[in-house]
Design brief:
2 copies of one chain form a homodimer. By secondary structure, chain A is of the alpha+beta class. Chain A contains 21 helices and 31 strands. Chain A folds into 4 domains: 174 residues, YbaK/aminoacyl-tRNA synthetase-associated domain (YbaK protein, Alpha-Beta Complex); 184 residues, Bira Bifunctional Protein, Domain 2 (BirA Bifunctional Protein, domain 2), CATH 3.30.930; 117 residues, 3-Layer(aba) Sandwich (Rossmann fold); 90 residues, C-terminal domain of ProRS (Translation Initiation Factor IF3). The structure holds zinc ion (2 copies).
C-alpha cells in the first residue's frame, strides 16, 4: 500500500472547485477521478484526469465488453457490491481497501499516466470524503503492480474524450452516463433496417427507429438532441393544429426572453423549490463575469408574471390569454431519453389570467380536452385525462390536470401534457392585482398549460414496429409516396414517359385534395430500396405504379400500419385515399386503446396491485390521495419488483407512482380501504398507478 | 481628505472577482462602486454597494432631473469633462482630487451607508486602477462633509434596485445604461398618444411607438425585450411567408440544440474571433458547476457542421438544405435598441451544403433576392442589394451579401438580412467531405443566411409617424377594423341590432375574401377612443359604419397611412378593400423609396462625401475595397462630424462605414481615385457608405 505525501483537509465541493483547490495547493499535481464500473460480473476501477470526460466507447473497445455496456456502480450500491461502506470512491480507497473489497476488479488508467513523468504528483479524494491526498504517481503505479503484476503492460488506454464537455460532479457520474446515450454512441448503424425487435429490447429498438427513420440525431452535449427534418415536420404539423385552435379561443402568441433574473425566478418559493436543481445558469459573456448569474428559463411563469402585474390594472384587462412557442432548458441528471426526457426541449406554454377561479378552471379543463384531441385526433395516441395527486402536482399550482399516455411495451406511463390552475399563488407573489367591477382590488386567478416535443416520442413508442417508424396519417409530412415500378431494360423511353406523366397526374390529384403526396422518382436507387426506405420512415401509404396500372380500374396501395395491400378505385382516387388515411388513423387509435385497456386493471388488493405491475400493467386502485401514502406505495412496489428481479433478470425494478386520478372514474363503488396495506385513510378516488417516464 | 487604512495592490479584474477579493482581504468591508453622472450642467458622484445595481429611476426621482436623464460619464470623457486624466473613477479619486475637478458636483450615497454602523469599512478602487483602498466609513463621511456641509442631511437616498440583475464589470457601466433603456424605464407613459414627433426626437419617438402600440415591453435583463402579441404577429406573418418560399426551394426545417460545446465553437478560428466577446456561457446547473462552460448559440454554424460531416458521405447526399427558426444570444455591450439590436433575438438561419461553388453562389443570391422581396413586398421597405466589403464580411465567410435598409430620419443604414457564401472554410475545419461522381473526396461548399426580428424594427422606423405605428397592409394582423358609429341615446335597440348585423355581414365578406378584418364592438370605450387606439396601433384601414351606411352605395374607409378617407363602393366591397390595401402598400413602398433616393448621393470628392453625411445622407462613393482605407474613412468622417457637432449640438458624431457594394452599380464610369483623400489604390466599385446601426 503506497504512502501518500500529504493530506489536505477540506469540505465537500464541486469537482471544478476541487480541481482549482488541488492545483493551488500542489501546483504540479494532477487531480484525478476514479470510476468503479461493472458489466455483469466484470469490474474495473478506472482512473482518469479529473478535468476530462470518460470515453465509454473507448472503454468498451479496450475491454471488448460492449453488451451490456459498463455502468458506473452507484454510491448507494457500494456496500452491497463492494462489501464495505464507503462515502467516496477514490484511488486511495481502492488501493487501501483492496483486500476488503469482495469483488475482483482490474485497475485501469488513462494513457496520460503512462507517460506522465513531468507531473509526478497525483491528488485524489480520501476514503471518507473529508479531504484529499497527494501521492507520487510512481508510488501509485508500484502499488497497483503489487496487486496486478501485468498491470504496467495492460493497464493503460486512451480513456478520455478528446473534447471535454460539461460533466456533472464526480459524485454522480452514473446519472450522466445513461444507458441510452451509450447504446447510441457506442454503436454504428450501418445497415438499413432495424436490427432489434420492439419486444426483445425496447430501448435499443427505440433508438434505432429514431436514427434510421432520420427523426433525430445525437449531439455532443449530453441530453440535447438534434431534431432532423423528418422529426421536426411532425412538430410543425401538431404545432400548426394546436396553434389554430388556441387562436380560435382568443389566445395570442408572444415571446418572452429566455433569460430570467435570479430575483424573479426565486419569487414563488414552491415553484423555485421544484425547479432549482434543474436550472442552468449563465454566469459570463466572453471573459466577463456577471455580478449575478442569470437563469435560462425552465418554464416562463417567473419571466412573464412581473409584466402581467404591469399590464393588468382593471377587470377590463382580463382575461389575459398569452401563449408562446419556445425552447426551455431543464438540467436533469436522470437518464435522458430522446424526445421523452431531454435537457432542452421545444414546447408551447400558455399563460392566462382571469377574474374568477371558475373561469380559470373552465379554461384549464378546455385546454385539457384540446390536449386529448391533439393526441387522439392527430397522433392516434389514446390518453387518460386526470388530475395529479398532491405529490405529483406542478410546483406552485393549486391543481394540475394532465393527459397520460401508456407505453404498453415497457409498461410505463408518460405524462403527455399538463394544464395547471395556479390559483392566486403567483398573483400574490408577483402582485398581479386588478380593480374589479365593484372597485375593489383583488388578485387574479391564473392558469398555465403546456405540451412538448415529448409528444413525438410518445407517438413513436406507441405505434412504431420492428420494421421502423409508423406515422399516424395526420402527422405525416408525406402521407402517400408514389413509387414508379415495373421498369426494366426492355421498357421503351415512351413507356417510361407515360409512367412518369401518370404518376405526376395522380400526384397532382392527391395534392389538390389536400393529401400530402410525394413521387419518389430517383433513378440511382432500386425499387426495393425505396420500399424499405419509406417503410422505415413510416409513410402511411405507398402507391406502386407500373405500366399495367396506367389502364387499371384500381391501384394497389400498401398500408404501412397493417402491412397489407389495398386496391383503391382509380375513379375518385384522391378522395378514396383520404378515406383510407382516416380509416388507418381510426384503426391505429383503436388498436392502441385496446392495448391500454388490456393493461389497465381495477384492483382492490395490494397483491393484485403488484401483480398488475409485474405484468407491465397499470393498476387503477382506491387511494386516499396522501403524499406519504403514495411514497410508501412507490418504495414498497419497488422493493417487491427488486425481489422479483432477483429471480427474473428481465423484470423491471422500478416502483409505481400515481399517473393521475382519472376524471372518468369507474362506475364501481369506492372500497373502504386505501390500496396501501398500511394506510388507515379513506380512499378518495380510484387513482391510476404505474411505472413511468 | 480622509486617510485610508490600508492599500491592497492587485491587477484589474471583473467586478465579481474584485468583490470576492475585497471580502477575503477585509471580511467586514463593503466593496463600493461609484458613478460620475451628468445631465446637462448637473453632475453627481454617486456611490453604492458594488454588488448592487443602480436604480436610475430612483435617482431621477430624488434629484428631480428626468429629462434629459442622467447619463454615466464615459471613461474616454473624463479628461474632457473633469479636467484631469484618470484611469478609474472611485470614491478615493473624488475625495482626493476634488479640488482639481473642474465641474462642481454633488456627492450622493446609497441609503445603506447612512445606517451602516455594523460594517464600518469601505473598499474602493484606487485612482490609478492598480489596486484598492480600505477606509472607515466614518472617515469617508467626514471627508465628504468637509466638502459639502449639508451632505449628511441631503446626501442619501435608496439608490439601488431592490432586485439585482446581471451587470457588466464596473469598468464599463456606461455601456450598460444606454439612453434608450433609461428613457424607457424612467418615464411613465400614461397618456394614450405619442408625445414627441419623429422629427424632434427620433429615439424617444421610437420607444413611445413601441410601447404605446403595444409592440414590445421592456424587461429586467438589459438588452432583452418582450415581444407582445401585436409585435409578435408581424413576425408570424413574415415567418410564414418566408417559410413557404424556402420550402418551395426544397429547404427543410429542423432544430439544433441551443447549447454548443466550447470545442465545437472554437473550431473555425476567424468565426470564433468574430463572436468570442459576445458569447454567453452556461457554467452551472443548480449549484453544480460544469467541468467546462457551454456556449449559448450566437449562430449555429458550429453546432450544425460537426453533424453535417456525419450526414454527408456522397455527392448523392448533396445539396443538403436545412433551416431553423430559433432564438440566439449575442451579449453586445453597445447600446441595445429594441428590435434593432438586442441580446436575444429571433431569426431563421439557413445552412446549405453544395457540391460546387457555382451552385452555392447561385443559391446565396436567390436567397438574397428573397430577402429583398420580403422587405419590399411584405414590409414595404425598399432595400439595397449588395456585397459586404472585406471589413464588414461575416467571420468565416468568403463572401457576404446583404440587403441594406436606410433609416432616413436619423440618417442611418441598417443591415436587414445577410446571405453568406462560406466557401470551404467551415468544411475544412469540420471535415465535411463527400465522394464526388469521379470517386474523389472533396470538401463541400456552404452557405448560411438569415434574417431576424430586426426586420420589425426597420419597418417601424421606416413607416411610422407621429401618430404612432403605421402597419404596411400585408403584415397587419388586422388589416381593417370596423367601428360601429353614430349611435346615441336616441338609437333604438332595433337600429342597434341592424347596425351590428350589418357590421357582422361586412366582416364576413371581408374574411371570405382573405382580408384580415376585425369588428371593434366594445361598449365600454367611446368611438373617439377607438379611433385613436387603432390609429396608434397602425391598422391600415378603418371602416366607420353608422345607421346611414346601411343603405349607402359606398362606405367611408379611413386610410391610416395617408390620414385620408376614401369612399369604397359597397358592391364588391371586399375586393375593393383588397385593392385599396394593395395600393396603400405600393404607395408606402414608393414613398420610402423616394426618401431613400433623395438621401443617396453619388459623390466623387471627400468634401461632398462628408457633406452628404452631414445631411443625414448616404454617399455612394468610388472605393478601393481596402480594409485600412475603410477604417480611415470611418475615423476621419467621425472626426469631421465631431467638429461640426461642436458647432451644432444636434449634429450626429458617428463616422461612416460601408453599408455594401450595391449589385446594381451606377451607369457612370468609375473614377480613377478612391474616395479617401489619402488612398492611392484604384477604386473597384461604387460603395454605399453611411452611419449605421
Ligand atoms: Zn392511503
Ligand atoms: Zn481606398
Amino acid at each position: 500500500m503506497p504512502k501518500f505525501l500529504r493530506e489536505i483537509k477540506h469540505p465537500a465541493m464541486s469537482i471544478q472547485s476541487w480541481i482549482a483547490k488541488m492545483t493551488e495547493e500542489e501546483p504540479t499535481c494532477v487531480p484525478v477521478k476514479s470510476f468503479f464500473l461493472s458489466s455483469k460480473n466484470r469490474f474495473v476501477f478506472l482512473t482518469i484526469p479529473a478535468d476530462k470526460r470518460l470515453n465509454m466507447t473507448a472503454l468498451s473497445r479496450f475491454t471488448g465488453v460492449s453488451r451490456p455496456p459498463f455502468r458506473v456502480v452507484r454510491a448507494e450500491k457500494y456496500e452491497e457490491v463492494l462489501g464495505v461502506k464507503l462515502s467516496t470512491i477514490s484511488l486511495h480507497t481502492a488501493l487501501d481497501r483492496h483486500v476488503e473489497l469482495k469483488v475482483p476488479f482490474q485497475f485501469l488508467f488513462d494513457d496520460s499516466f503512462r507517460a506522465a513523468d513531468a507531473k509526478p504528483l497525483i491528488a485524489c479524494p480520501s476514503s471518507e470524503g473529508s479531504g484529499s491526498l497527494i501521492y507520487t504517481l510512481s508510488s501509485i503505479l508500484e502499488g497497483v503492480t503489487e496487486v496486478d503484476k501485468d498491470f504496467m503492460k495492460k493497464g493503460f488506454f486512451a480513456a478520455v474524450e478528446s473534447e471535454t464537455v460539461a460533466a456533472p460532479p464526480a459524485a454522480e457520474p452514473s446519472e450522466e452516463i445513461s444507458r441510452l446515450d451509450l447504446s447510441m454512441k457506442g454503436t454504428s448503424y450501418s445497415k438499413l433496417g432495424i436490427e432489434v425487435t420492439k419486444e426483445d429490447n425496447f430501448v435499443e429498438w427505440y433508438v434505432e427507429v429514431l436514427k434510421k427513420a432520420e427523426l433525430l440525431e445525437y449531439y455532443d452535449v449530453s441530453g440535447c438532441y438534434i431534431l432532423r427534418p423528418w422529426g421536426y415536420a411532425i412538430w410543425e404539423i401538431v404545432k400548426d393544429w394546436f396553434d389554430a385552435r388556441i387562436k380560435a379561443m382568443g389566445v395570442e402568441n408572444c415571446y418572452f426572453p429566455i433569460l430570467i433574473t435570479k430575483a424573479a425566478l426565486q419569487r414563488e418559493v414552491n415553484h423555485i423549490d421544484g425547479f432549482a436543481p434543474e436550472v442552468a445558469w449563465v454566469t459570463k459573456s466572453g471573459d466577463c463575469e456577471f455580478a449575478e448569474p442569470i437563469a435560462i428559463r425552465p418554464t416562463s411563469e417567473t419571466a412573464m408574471y412581473p409584466t402581467f402585474a404591469k399590464w393588468i390594472r382593471s377587470h377590463r384587462d382580463l382575461p389575459l390569454k398569452l401563449n408562446q412557442w419556445s425552447n426551455v432548458l431543464r438540467w436533469e441528471f436522470s437518464h435522458p431519453t430522446p424526445f421523452i426526457r431531454s435537457r432542452e426541449f421545444l414546447w408551447q406554454e400558455g399563460h392566462t389570467a382571469w377574474e374568477t377561479a371558475e373561469e380559470a378552471t373552465r379554461e384549464a379543463l378546455e385546454i385539457l380536452e384540446l390536449y386529448r384531441e391533439l393526441y387522439e385526433k392527430m397522433l392516434a395516441v389514446p390518453v387518460v385525462k386526470g388530475r395529479k395527486t398532491d405529490k405529483e402536482r406542478f410546483p406552485g399550482a393549486d391543481t394540475t390536470w394532465s393527459v397520460e399516455a401508456l407505453i404498453t411495451q415497457p409498461g410505463r406511463g408518460c405524462q403527455a401534457a399538463t394544464s395547471h390552475f395556479l390559483g392566486q399563488n403567483f398573483a400574490r407573489m408577483f402582485e398581479i392585482e386588478f380593480e374589479n367591477a365593484n372597485r375593489e382590488r383583488q388578485h387574479v386567478y391564473q392558469n398555465s398549460w403546456g405540451f412538448t416535443t415529448r409528444s413525438i416520442g410518445i407517438m413513436i413508442m406507441t405505434h412504431s414496429d420492428s420494421k421502423g417508424l409508423v406515422l399516424p396519417p395526420r402527422v405525416g409530412k408525406i402521407q402517400i409516396v408514389i413509387v414508379p415500378c415495373g421498369m426494366s431494360t426492355k421498357t421503351t423511353p415512351e413507356e417510361k414517359e407515360n409512367l412518369m406523366k401518370f404518376t405526376a397526374a395522380v400526384n397532382a390529384e392527391l395534392c389538390a385534395e389536400g393529401v400530402r403526396s410525394h413521387v419518389d422518382s430517383r433513378t440511382n436507387v432500386s425499387v426495393g430500396w425505396k420500399f424499405n426506405h419509406w417503410e422505415l420512415k413510416g409513410v402511411p401509404l405507398r402507391l406502386e405504379v407500373g405500366p399495367k396500372e396506367l389502364v387499371a380500374q384500381a391501384l394497389p396501395v400498401a398500408v404501412r400500419y397493417t402491412g397489407e395491400k389495398e386496391m383503391v378505385q382509380r375513379s375518385d382516387f384522391a378522395r378514396n385515399v383520404r378515406l383510407l388515411l382516416d380509416s388507418v388513423h381510426d384503426k391505429m387509435l383503436a388498436c392502441a386503446r385496446s392495448r391500454n385497456d388490456e393493461r389497465t386493471k381495477l384492483v382492490h388488493s395490494w397483491e393484485s396491485f403488484n401483480d398488475v405491475l409485474r405484468e407491465k400493467g397499470f393498476p387503477l386502485a382506491p387511494h386516499c390521495g396522501g403524499k406519504s401514502c403514495e411514497e410508501y406505495i412507490k418504495a414498497q412496489s419497488a422493493e417487491l419488483s427488486r425481489e422479483r428481479a432477483a429471480e427474473d433478470k428481465n423484470a423491471p425494478s422500478m416502483g409505481a407512482k400515481s399517473l393521475c386520478v382519472p376524471l372518468d372514474q369507474p362506475s364501481e363503488r369506492l372500497p373502504d380501504r386505501c390500496i396501501s396495506p398500511v394506510c388507515e385513510n379513506t380512499p378518495l378516488s380510484f387513482t391510476l398507478f404505474g411505472r413511468s417516464y
